[in-house]
Amino acid sequence: MSKRTFSVFAGLCAFLMFALCAAPSGAQTTEEKEKPAMYSYIANWQIPREHWAEMEAANAADKAILDKALADGTIVGYGDDVNLVHTPAGETHDDWWSATSLAGLLKVLDQFTSSGNSTTAPLSTATKHWDEVLVSHYYNWKPGATYKGGYVKLAEYKLKADAPDNAVELLSKHLVVPALEKLLADGTIVEYEIDETAIHTSAPGTFAIVIVTPTPEGLDTAAAAIRDAVKLHPLAIDAFGSFQDDSGHRDELLKGNGIFK
């Protein structure tokens, strides 16, 4: 066993030891459960600044299709975002919808294609456009959750080549999801999800932790809660570090609107 492999293995052992020891004795038989797959279609757009004001009207034009799909169960949520921290190659806006099947995503996509909404201004002015299809097994929101002008924090991580095949599962069940569930319960966040790529339009091995908070103060509260978790559970954080490649870490901060079933 190489030093690198041993290091990851040792981190995993420490991580699992922490997960067992940190829980009260009566709770050691429970863990966060994997949920049925939730797929998300994200359409990313780089819109020239002079057309930004038109995006609200474009999103409103999509609402009839999305509301119907939400009402009949084809999708479980939808929304749109504007990027608050711009990069030369990144999106300025996005639209998304989520479903419990790929078929649900594609039915809505077909409706947008046939309606012609995606080829009208301001989307037709986009200098760049790309799509993503993601899948999550760890997500939650309160039934009927909605937000308008909420803040979306996305943290993307890249797994090391020798990370365990179930690294995202281990991190989600024993570290990330318990912390996020507390933030959801006290109202700091209204939704969270841990996403992986379902259609690999880029190299596999990345995952993203996404939270939505209704207020800017919620970002500070969530950050403080995560810092406290780091202080209280250093073994788990060391294990997290042993799985992920720091060079692949990226953050996004967006502001948007969303609704969930």
Describe this structure in words.
The chain has 261 residues and is of the alpha+beta class. The protein has one domain: Alpha-Beta Plaits (2-Layer Sandwich). An 8-stranded antiparallel barrel has the order 1-3-2-8-5-7-6-4, surrounded by 5 helices.
Q: Determine the strand fraction and express it as a percent band.
A: 25-35%
Helices and strands, in N-to-C order?
HEHEEHEEHEEHHE
Strand segment count:
8
Taken from the alpha-carbon principal axes, the silhouette is: globular
Question: Could you say what the CATH topology is called?
Answer: Alpha-Beta Plaits
Strand order of the largest sheet: 1-3-2-8-5-7-6-4
TL;DR of this structure?
The chain is an alpha+beta fold and 261 residues long.
List the helices and strands and how they pair.
Layout (H helix, E strand, L loop, with lengths): L2 H20 L15 E9 L8 H17 L5 E7 L9 E7 L2 H14 L12 E14 L4 E14 L7 H19 L5 E7 L8 E8 L2 H17 L1 H10 E17 L1
Antiparallel strand pairs: 1-3, 1-4, 2-3, 2-8, 4-6, 5-7, 5-8, 6-7
Helix pairs in contact: 1-6
Key attributes of the depicted protein:
Alpha-Beta Plaits, eight-stranded antiparallel beta barrel, 8 strands, disordered N terminus
